[in-house]
Amino acid sequence: MENLFKVILLAVIQGVTEFLPVSSSGHLVLSKHFLGLEATSGATLEIVLHAGTLVSILVFYSKHLLEIIAGVFRGEKSAINFVLLILLGCIPAIIVGFTVKHQLEGAFTHPRFVSCTLIATGLFLIASHFAKPGEKRVGWVSGLIIGLAQAVAMLPGISRSGSTIGMSRFLGIEPKEAAEYSFLMSAPLLAGVSLLAMLDLFKNGNTSGTTSWELILGFIVSGVVGYFSIRWLVSLLQRGRFWYFGVYCLAVGIGTFCLLSFA
Q1: What's the pTM?
Q2: Domain count, the chain
Q3: Residue 217 sits in which domain range?
Q4: What is the average pLDDT across 17-33?
């Protein structure tokens, strides 16, 4: 029962922090450390929770996704370009993932490092508030730059949505489109990583220390919470309150660093 409670709590944390610009991976690392639920090499639990949030993206943007798919089949240039822009934004993260995979996995075992990257995320989000507002759409150059920001966010503690949406603000991208591009750009990566992890799960078994039922429950909880987190973030972004999360990340980063260093 205690482990079930921890899985549910981690699923809620994942669902909230995957889309809010506060770093889901960083919060999971710190939560595991302070809850005593140790990270494992297979990272099965993290992948299951990420898969849940992938479903929430697909559900939230289902209408737009269906329009894009229909447009691609009709040969509409705008729909095809949007798909290509999404794939372009994924390329830097794919390259980083395959070249420094083991180094990235090692970072997930160092809570103090995560505290420092959360501080960096906080400073970046606060700085993005001072970017000049714009109404541009994502283009080839801006798409690649945002993709590079997403690649950097593979480090735990660096928020993926914070990096991509924050970079979009610096590039003058319209807020609603920035959020849409950010979330849809993460979908192929989440799907790919989840697929690879599932293959590893079938090959090596469950390495998370949790039962199959606990993993299923975690998947459902992270998906439901993630859906409402997207709705909330899009609303806050349009009201110009995106930088509030920077203050939060700064506080959490400094607080946990002090706890880990002096406790």
Answers
A1: 0.83
A2: 1
A3: 2-262
A4: 83
